[in-house]
Amino acid sequence: MNSDQNPVTNAPVAPTYVELYTMVQQLSEQLKAMSESQRQNASSSGDNSNRASCTTAEFRIVPDLNKTVKEFCGRETACEADDWFESVNTLARINNWPDGYRLQFIRSCLVGAARNWFLGREFENWDDFSKKFKSTFSRGMRVTDKWNLMQKRVQQKNEHVVDFFHEKIRMCRELKLSFDEINYHVLQGVYSRELAIFALSNKHENENELLGDLLEWERLNALRNGISRKDDLVDKRNEKSNYSSKKSEKNVTATVNQVPLYVAPHRRETKTTTTNGELPSSEQVECWFCHKTGHVGRDCSQRLEKLTCYGCSGKGHLKRDCPARSKAETNVTTTGVTVDNPHRYLKYGVIRGAVVSLLVDTGSHYSLIKQSVAERVGLVIEYATQPLYGIGSVTVPTTTTVGRALESITVEGVEAGPVTLLVVPDDAQRTELIVGRGWLDLPYVTYYKTSNDLIIKRIDKNCLSTSTGNADITSSTDAIVHVTEVDESLYREPLTEADFKYVSTEATRVERDELLVLLNSYRDTFAKNLSELGCTEMAELRIDEEEGSKPVTCRPYKVSLAERKAMAEIIAEWKSCGIVTETRSPYASPVLLVSQKGGKSRLVVDYRRLNRQTRRQNFPLPSMDEQITLLGTGQLFVQLDLANGYFQVPLAKESREKTAFITPDDMGEFTRTPFGLAGAPGEFQRLMNVVLGELRGTLVKSYLDDWVLEASDWEDMLTKLELELKCLRKAKLTLRPGKCMFGTKEIEFLGFVITKGEIKPGREKTRSISEFPRPENIHELRGGF
């Protein structure tokens, strides 16, 4: 009964606050004692490694990840992919990164195709990622591919030798080549021939010695180039005076005992030699451009046929090779008579697919060719001697021929059949070929001289044109109609790069030559002056007046003597080109001069009174905002501008008298649309829509006479440009070359600058702000607001 009545006497009793405090103090003293005991044991121990492990704290160096690992896009080579992966793997291993952090770091470094590859897959761990990455990007390269890459790696002209050396060494080591082979391939690829000879003369035990010799030669060469020598001018003069004699004595030889020195591919000359030291025959030589035998790329007609000289505007050569730059002599053999304007008669021709320089000599009965040129082009020579007599003696021959050959000659695209060529020694004439009357008198050849060129044309057998060009003569025989009078107005000077406002300087010379060839093939669509201005037949402007209108009659405005002289010159030019004619019209609108940029003046007729009584011809103009927006994404632009656009639209005959104008000295009426008529903009825009047709708004963005087209690259630009030029030729319209731009990345169109997808206000709009004077005090600042 007592136990049942007192059940709580055995329950645990909670300690008091004092007891808890006492227990905490005891435990603290025990911990201090244990720590002191461990410290004493560590200090008394002689094990340095244990002591270091107990006293040294662990730390890590966090690298700059932005500089340690570069981005990976997936287009790298297998070697670059392996190197990138090894960089990431080494960094992760040193810093003990967990798999999750490694994968996240990889994700931040991937861009482009590699990032899409990563996002499209799941990776269980780092090993799984490594296997998938190597199977996709670390593709094994064949030994042949590695070998080809190693051989192609050569030092460029301005490349430092250290950059080339170490990359070449790495490629050789990947192929597991011996040092002797590495040494051989490195010297093959160096740019300087003298450097290769210097290194070959020394023996190297390892790569460091080889690199040391290369750097030492570079240092000495730089020091020598910085020293000016007084004997240099004398040596150069001696070399120039002895050039011809040394050239004749030079022979290309190679002996069996002589070790050939390898020359890098980019330093090799076009001429090659056979194993016995002789030059290969024309049948063995192969052109690198057209892959045909019989000539080399330097003489390939297909490569040179599109080239245009900017000096003489001739075709088939560049300005640096222009024959007009050097004085030429015309002779039958060796006479020394200087030709007036020699570039007219010095041209380029084609014989058996090879390009040769020639002189058109109307005083020579025969056509003469150098012996070396005849052998080079592969002519079949019939060896026979024949004396040739020139100026000075009719009894003693000037030279003697080596032989003769029968072959066709093409000059400026004219091929008239085979002609007899006399083969003469090389020292008998300067030019490679002299074209005489034997070729010029062939039935299909005609030629005439203009003010600055000698034009050679081919005439058909049954259709020969008269001098006026209005009638054809049909002949049943091979008779020749000799041209006695030529209309030089039909001839237009070829366009050069200097004629245009801008031609891309980033384009290669070949690309710019292709552009000039295209533009000159559409030469009739460009007008350098008013005499070349086009006149369309697709539209004409009519001036319809309101009923009851009376002729507009005004007195001429008062102008100064200088302005009267300028007006007379402008009107005289218009009359000479047929834009303005004499008139007896009752209409007379006054004129005034308006100043333009560059100090020039523009003659403008005040048609305000005539416009008040003219019926409006409404036609919508393109939206300027829409045109600019469509060009906002362009990368490469062509900007064209019509030459005197209104002057290329004829006036209706019954409307011409209404455009009559009066000056203090003269009167006249327009045959073409003048500037200032009320209906001119609408009618002109209607014409532009008809001319462009389906190209409007798609390939070409236009606003009145300003045309712009955009392209993705140079080839695309030429293709679209030709379509536009075809439209101009069909409409008989002409452009102003001085305002045309080709291949530009920035244009100013309708008052806005468009470049690289950006549209900004034009320079004229921002000039007032940029040139606003800087306020000097508070009053000027307030005045600006």
From TrEMBL:
Residues 32-52 are annotated as: Disordered. PROSITE patterns: RT_POL, ZF_CCHC. Keywords: Endonuclease, Hydrolase, Metal-binding, Nuclease, Nucleotidyltransferase, Transferase, Zinc, Zinc-finger. Pfam families: Asp_protease_2, RVT_1, zf-CCHC. One of its GO terms (biological process) is DNA biosynthetic process. This is Uncharacterized protein. Residues 575-754 form the Reverse transcriptase domain. Residues 287-302, 309-323 form the CCHC-type domain. One of its GO terms (molecular function) is nucleotidyltransferase activity. PANTHER family: PROTEIN CBG26694, PROTEIN NYNRIN-LIKE.
